[in-house]
């Protein structure tokens, strides 16, 4: 028994020393919010997702803008056709070059060609629908980024309240320890005077040990809550955070609608995503239509590098129509159609699930509101019971076991009351998040 008490006492003292060795920083909720907005990794990842979607949309500018390419090519050949064509492009053909002997066995000929080529899309219906799909995706990512920020703010609310609750629990248990140690002193004095038995004194000592163990757990909970807030802020320091304000009952002027709003950013984002799938399906169907593209090139030729004594241009337009590409396009169209139908079902399911969450959150708030009144009453009653029993114990009129039960019950009711405040505030914050 003594060894166990020694080990528990040593662990408790070690933990206290560790906490004192670490920095304790007071922080307000506003500070946490600002640092999360500035440094949180999830928000940064969400912004990069948007940048990716925006880059995909900008790629679709290719259906309006020309494709321009510049090249410089040098060759050396004795191929009859290439040699004759190179001289023709360089505009240096002479009558002697039509000699059959020279045509069949030309000398080595060099040719350097500079080519500027332009391709301009004119009519590409599938590309237009692909552009619409990319735009819908980009807008959806904008709303999703907004919803991610909303969720992080809700998570900050919860994490900060958890830190407040952890400190409230720590305060309650520290006071319970003071009361237990005071009762232990009274028990020791009563034992010396012959009013109590050894078993009563041991029961009080067990109570002190239990409270010390609870104190150790409470301090660990403070560290856990601090570390989570540091994680949200992307802060790698090992500081212990302390809220600048205490846990109190919050009252929001919150009007909760009976139905979930389809204008909520995440729901609207899913609708835009469904629109993107619809436009991709239309784009796949438009691949059955012909496309019209213009092209042109300007070319310069010479037998020396980076020269261009001879030049010429070429302009034209191409109407192309792939009549049959096996069954590839049919299968692709069917796949995109299935993806579109799936996205509609997912949207309906998400709205239904969100409505379910809203209904559940409203009931959770009502339960927490009712529980708050009852837990406060229970705490007040247990406090009065402890006061009476403590006075009777000091006068030798109360059993030690009854005093310990009353003391334990009061600490529990305090913790339950503060836990209920947390649940009440959390329910309000969650309703605010769901209806934003």
Tally the structural domains.
Answer: 2
Write down how many β-strands occur, each being a DSSP E stretch of 2 or more residues. Answer: 6
Large-scale geometry:
elongated
Topology order in helix (H) and strand (E) letters: HEHHEHHEHHEHEEHH
Provide the β-strand percentage band.
5-15%
Structural class: alpha+beta
Q: What's the CATH H-level superfamily name of the largest domain?
A: Outer membrane efflux proteins (OEP)
Overall radius of gyration: 40 Å
What is the helical fraction, as a range of percent?
Answer: 55-70%
CATH topology name of the largest domain? Outer membrane efflux proteins (OEP)
Terminal-residue CA separation: 57 Å
Low-confidence runs: 1-21
Provide structural commentary.
- With 436 residues, the protein is α+β, with helices and mostly antiparallel strands.
- It folds into 2 domains: 2-39 and 124-287 and 325-434, Outer membrane efflux proteins (OEP); 67-122 and 292-321, no CATH class.
- Helix content is 67%, strand content 13%.
- It contains 10 helices and 6 strands, in the order H-E-H-H-E-H-H-E-H-H-E-H-E-E-H-H.
- It has helices at residues 2-21, 29-39, 41-59, 80-90, 100-104, 125-192, 198-232, 265-286, 328-394, 400-434; strands spanning 24-27, 67-77, 109-123, 240-243, 291-302, 310-320.
- The strands form 2 sheets. A 4-stranded antiparallel beta sheet has the order 2-3-5-6. It has a two-stranded parallel ribbon with strand order 1-4.
- A hairpin with a 7-residue loop joins strand 5 (291-302) and strand 6 (310-320).
- The chain is elongated, with a radius of gyration of 40 Å.
- The protein starts with a helix and ends with a helix.
- The model is unreliable at 1-21 (pLDDT under 50).
């Amino acid at each position: 028994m003594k060894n166990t008490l020694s080990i528990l006492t040593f662990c408790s003292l070690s933990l206290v020393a560790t906490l004192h060795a670490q920095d304790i920083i007071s922080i307000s909720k506003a500070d946490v919010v600002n640092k999360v907005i500035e440094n949180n990794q999830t928000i940064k990842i969400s912004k990069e997702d948007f940048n990716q979607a925006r880059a995909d949309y900008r790629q679709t500018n290719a259906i309006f803008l020309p494709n321009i390419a510049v090249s410089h090519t040098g060759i050396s050949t004795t191929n009859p056709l290439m040699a004759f064509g190179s001289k023709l492009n360089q505009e240096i053909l002479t009558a002697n070059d039509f000699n059959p002997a020279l045509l069949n066995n030309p000398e080595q000929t060099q040719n350097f060609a500079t080519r500027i080529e332009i391709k301009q899309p004119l009519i590409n219906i599938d590309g237009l629908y692909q552009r619409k799909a990319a735009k819908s995706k980009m807008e959806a990512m904008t709303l999703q980024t907004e919803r991610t920020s909303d969720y992080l703010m809700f998570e900050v609310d919860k994490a900060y309240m958890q830190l407040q609750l952890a400190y409230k629990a720590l305060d309650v248990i520290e006071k319970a320890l003071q009361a237990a140690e005071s009762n232990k002193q009274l028990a020791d004095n009563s034992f010396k005077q012959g009013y109590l038995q050894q078993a009563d004194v041991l029961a009080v000592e067990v109570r002190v040990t239990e409270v010390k163990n609870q104190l150790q757990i409470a301090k660990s909970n403070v560290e856990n809550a601090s570390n989570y807030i540091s994680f949200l802020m992307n802060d790698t320091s090992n500081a212990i955070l302390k809220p600048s304000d205490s846990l109190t009952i919050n009252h929001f002027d919150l009007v909760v609608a009976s139905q979930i709003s389809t204008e909520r950013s995440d729901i609207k984002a899913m609708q835009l995503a469904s629109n993107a799938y619809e436009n991709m399906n239309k784009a796949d169907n438009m691949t059955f239509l012909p496309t019209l593209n213009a092209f042109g090139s300007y070319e310069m030729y010479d037998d020396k590098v980076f020269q261009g004594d001879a030049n010429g241009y070429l302009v034209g337009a191409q109407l192309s129509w792939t009549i049959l590409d096996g069954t590839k396009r049919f299968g692709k169209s069917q796949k995109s159609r299935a993806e579109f139908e799936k996205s509609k079902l997912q949207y309906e399911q998400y709205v239904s699930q969100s409505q379910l969450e809203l209904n559940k959150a409203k009931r959770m708030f009502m339960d927490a509101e009712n529980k708050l009144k009852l837990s406060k009453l229970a705490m007040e009653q247990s406090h009065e019971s402890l006061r009476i029993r403590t006075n009777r114990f000091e006068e030798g009129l109360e059993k030690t076991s009854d005093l310990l039960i009353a003391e334990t019950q009061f600490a529990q009711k305090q913790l339950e009351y503060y836990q209920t405040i947390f649940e009440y505030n959390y329910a309000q914050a969650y309703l605010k998040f769901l209806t934003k």
